[in-house]
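SAMPLE LOG
Freezer: B-3
Tube label: C17
Construct: single chain, 50 aa
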Amino acid sequence: MDDDDREQRELQERVMRFRAMEREVTDPLAIGLLHDIVTELEAALEQPDK
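STRUCTURE (predicted):
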């Protein structure tokens, strides 16, 4: 597995972890921050040439 595949997989795992946190928290500020993080990570996933 090359570095790009590994980075892509790690990024996908981070997205999944942050999505899980987003579902579990109840604080509106935390939800908003986690949502922003997920959005940025998903955007990075869509740009494989990084």
